[in-house]
Amino acid sequence: MRTAVIVPALLSFVLCPVHRVSAQDQQVEVTSVPIPQRLDARFRIVPTQNIWNVLLLDTSTGRVWQVQYALSDTTLAGRWAINLEALVPAADTKSGRFTLYATHNTFNFILLDQDTGRAWQIQWSLNAKNRGIIHDLGGVTVTPDGGTLRSSLTSA
Hints:
Layout: H1 2-15, E1 43-47, E2 53-58, E3 64-68, E4 78-83, E5 98-102, E6 108-113, E7 119-123, E8 132-138, E9 140-142, E10 149-151
Antiparallel strand pairs: 1-2, 2-3, 3-4, 5-6, 6-7, 7-8, 9-10
């Protein structure tokens, strides 16, 4: 009886075609399903195009950290400040005030103060010298003569 089971199994193994796939031919697609987040949450995770790094935004102060995770103990993991200084006085903080927008550059995001329209270009990086607020993009102010919006940056 045992021989009757082994022989058909061996025949099926020998007769079935074997497909060898080299590592170069394999492609892995990583997709991220948006996870619902509360709009009034103080902290928000913002994905980057890099699968190992996300940004952690303090939506009340505008502070941002780069968070890198790892699957092994031999790989670097941790949290690094992009900007540690609050961008508004403590009296003006409120959850949901700041948000981050991705750009077409993997490492650059626009940090927006949704109350004033002021914006900053921030950059994350594995190199501390390349991490931080790159440009203050100015803001928008409302004029007293009827609410016309104008940029707070002046061109020279």
